[in-house]
What does this fold into?
Amino acid sequence: MKRCHFLLAALFFGAPPAAAQCLLCAQDAAAGQGRKAETPLRIDVETRLDMGRIAVGAMGGEVEIDPASGARRLRGDLVDLGGFALSGTVTVRGEPGAEVRVILPASVDLTSGHGRTARVTGLVTDLSAAPRLGPDGRLQFRFGGRLQVAALDDGDYRGRIPVTVEYQ
It folds into this structure.
């Protein structure tokens, strides 16, 4: 078995077009009702998604990180070599009490320094069906997913996960 170290760096992007559209709508409503406009959304990465260290055998396999518990599960021909596996953590700031929508991609391809690729799929959060910013204008959530690794593909895989957050 070859050794692999997987580190998934997550970079997050807000959704300025949708937020700007909502801001314009809020300004029109504010003119007639004396309401203030919505606050632009701000997204901060607190913790990056990290799959930990594994060895990959001839059959390949899959590493899964559960967003709620942070637990790591290995499937297939993989061996746990330790290290800290972490679910990603994101803090969103904006209009207190506002409902938001969080959009994650269906899959993300990672690359190693040797030009090999691995794919992250099944990205999910620990959010409820209709997440809202708290009274302080903050919402914190965790996310996880499944990393699919081909047979004997060693390397330090990295990539970016675009996360879009917009007002509902």
